[in-house]
Each structure stands twice: as C-alpha cells, then as structure tokens.
Amino acid sequence: MYLEERVEQLETIVVDQGKQIEVIATGLATLTTQMQKGFSDIHQEFSLLNKRVGNLESRMDKVEVRLDRVEVRLDRIEVRLDGIEQRVNHIEVRLDHLESKIDHLDHKMDQRFDELVTLIKSK
Hints:
By secondary structure, the protein is mostly helical. It is built from 1 helix and no strands.
C-alpha cells in the first residue's frame, strides 16, 4: 500500500508539474508573440522615420540649391551696387567741380557787375 500511495503522489506531482509547464509554455508563447509584434512595430516606426528623414534631406537639398541661387543673385546685386556707388561718387565729384565753377563764375559776374556799376557811376 505504501508504494501505491507513493506512486499516486508522484502521479499528482507529475500532473501538477505538467500543468506548470503548460502555463510556462503558454506564457512564453504569449511573450514571444508580443515581442515579435513589438519588434515589428518598432521596425515600422523606423521605416517611417527613415522615410521622413529622407524627405527632410530632399527638402534640405532643395533649400540649399535655392540658397545658392539667392547667394549668386545677391553677389550680382552687390556688384551692381558697387558700380552704382562708383557712379554716384563720380557724379558727386563732377557736381563739386561744377559747383566750384559756378561759384567762380558767380564771383566773376559780381566783379563784372561791380566794374559796370563803377563805370556807370564814373560817367
């Protein structure tokens, strides 16, 4: 009888351990499935991020091209402004020269007028 009780106890233990193994196997399968889904989700997110980064790089390249064009235009404008500035400086010099001539002519006319007045008064 003692052996039968021991065998029965062992059978009960084996059944309990079998149930525990099933629970562990089910938990491991669930965990594995969740991990696979998680990695799949992460992979999709990385794919989306890579696409977005690619789009941003493309847009940045376009912006850089536009900035290069703007820089070229600004360089041309600067050259034109330098030319205009030189022309304005030249015109200012000419105006100063003309103003000096006009002042000189005005002074001469004043002298001539004074001479005329003196001549008229003397007659």
